[in-house]
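Researcher: Batch entry, complex prediction.
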Amino acid sequence: MMAELEKVKILVVDDKPDKLLALQAVLEELGQTVLSAHSGPEALRLLLTESFAVILLDVNMPGMDGFETAALIRQHPRCEHTPIIFITAFPDDAFAARGYSLGAVDFILTPVVPEILQTKVAVFVDLYRMSRQVEQQAAQRVTLAQEHAARLAAERANRAKSEFLANVSHELRTPMNAIIGMTDLALTDSPAPAMREYLEAVKSNAAVLLELLNELLDLAKLESGKFVLERTSFSLHEMLSELIPSAHYRAEQKGLTFVTAVSPDTSARFLGDPLRLRQVLDNLLSNALKFTDQGSITLTVTVDSTTAQEASLRFAIRDTGIGISQADQERIFAPFTQVDASTTRRHGGTGLGLAIVKELVAAMGGQISLSSTPQSGSEFAVVVPLAYAITRSAQKAVPTGMGATQAAAGSAPDSPGAQLHVLVAEDTRTNQEIVRRALTRRGHKVEIAEDGRQAVNLVSQSHFDVILMDLQMPIMDGFQATAAIRALPAGKDVPIIALTAHALSEDRDRCKSAGMDDFISKPLDIHQLAAAVETAYRRPEGCGHACHS
Ligand code: ADP
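Model: Structure tokens for the complex:
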């Protein structure tokens, strides 16, 4: 069905009132709005405010005649192309030529035949309507195109910002890792007390900076959609048992009561990303501890709903702290937002925590909600769906060899055991130095390869007990070098440990399928390095790189 069309306007100009009325009556039958003027000047005045589909102009008028009026009408920008029909009783060729030269589109003779007048005017009404429609559609198209272009530009700018942020924070992490590693080494060299104090200060500040960089990297990855969550089988209760003691301790230090209420029906193994879930809870607990000076913090874990395949788990963190006003509750999930600069100065923080939490929870397919009353406390509730890891095959999805060192991270065994010949493929000087010192301190022999190709050559020439392999190296990267080493008779069984800048699951999977046995993520920790190397060597037969299949 056609939408009802807007009425258009027709102007009739004639000095004789009776003729004007008659013309108006005939034209009104077309269902349009008909305006009339008794003289040329009156018509021109109307043109200042109105647009007409067609103008009917009497030629013989006292004062300003029809031709003069037409000439002035044409000068008006709004009426440059408005069709003009002259009405006359005495047409001749010279007369018609003058009319056409002034922009007339037609002549109508008096006495007017109503049907002829209506037919001619109707044509111009239709034309006017069509051109208006075309104009409107063109304008709409321009608006749509502009909106689309603006949206694309905003998306591009946002992606570029996130990518820039990801690259910058990634690049900043490398020197930061070197600072932390070197400070660690300096601290193990029994520095004088004053020097130890300086070094401890460097270390703790570097750790804060590294945390900020990690947060920025996380947020940039989450925002640019490059974040990949793990899906491994894990015990929720085990994860909580790692998280709760530290929160308990921090609460005690502040004189707060820490209460946990974990429903027994959450004891199953689930499929998901335990590290990231823990990061979410840790962040909310840290905030609760930060913004509460007296009273209690309560962590409640319950099953909201369940099916045969998955459970919807609810984690609620309630505090009796300073609370958050309604207006601030809407702001604090945005990056770099903190409620009050004075409390922030007292408590530190970057204002990135909740932004990351919100993105992480969304990436897990969950939701976060907040209810809070100023001066009385807040409750952050996270609801996430987690699939049950019930089948054996699902249980097998847990990475076994890979990441084992991470979980057991900390210190090297007391005795280094045998002296090992370790090949280190790493192109960064500082990291070479950190690894060399960490291992020579334990009595091991270290050989350095500057790139993957050198590492392959060295393996074909001498025997190594363990290989540490950086992933990003010039000439031949760690993945290619591992594949080449595994193809050598001397390299078939030697444990290879990847040194990686990220602990992401896709990197871990790539290391595993490239034939590596384990990985250590940077910043390199000297104790963890020694532990990983010695554990990899000691690992019983059949549980070296053969485990990764
Ligand atoms: P950060 O804690 O690093 O400043 P967050 O994004 O984690 O950044 O938090 C943003 C702000 O939200 C905090 O600075 C604080 O003002 C407010 N906030 C968060 N959690 C709480 C809480 N439990 N009680 C009161 N205020 C909170």
